[in-house]
Amino acid sequence: MSASPPAGSAAPKRALVTGGSGRIGGAICRRLAHDGHFVYVHCHRGLEVAHALVRDILEGGGRAATIAFDVTDTEAARGALEAALAAGPIQILINNAGVHDDAVLPGMSAAQWRRVIDVSVNGFYNATQPLLMPMIRARWGRIVSVSSVAALIGNKGQVNYAAAKGALHSATRALALEVATRGVTVNVVAPGIIATPMTEGLFDARAIERLVPMNRLGTPAEVAGVVSFLTSDDAAYVTGQVISVSGGMA
After folding, report:
1. Catalytic (active-site) positions
2. Residue segments in the chain with a per-residue pLDDT below the cut of 50
């Protein structure tokens, strides 16, 4: 039996977290399951990690299943999502899938540029578009995209990443206007420097003190907490927003 949702949470819904096998994605999956939702843990290559996360959620009394597809493949994404939609609408979508492929622009290859844009921007379309009409028909939906502080303040060596995440901000604001009267909210969470394997060894204490006003790394759970709020009934009047979770960086 799953735990009762905390006060302020939406009535249990079906949720999809793209990139759910990653550290931030995994924290979001766990939090949404804790909130009482059925969670599809998405992965592309990290199938064993996704399966392990689903087992943990099930053992903790939550509800979850693995779903695997390449977010850059329009037909594969649509096929997988249509199969999931056969059981009912997916009313919570967390567009969390993203990749880094860093280089200063003079030395950046076209492949590096395309790969990062493809996952974040085309992935947004491929995951979001098939789920919109079921949300609209149900007149309830929550779409949250995970961006980055790089899209707000820039970062050397990440022109492709900043461009990709910045595109999510613009797409979010436009889509929020399109569905504002349909009970569907669309928002962005922009993490700063979060403690994940990707950031380990990149920032020493002096760098953190210089970059982050709070003088510490953020945690995946802190990102997940903001996502939890944005998917709750308490956030029903919040849409088209970019919320920075960055310790004051932006």
Report:
1. 161
2. 1-3
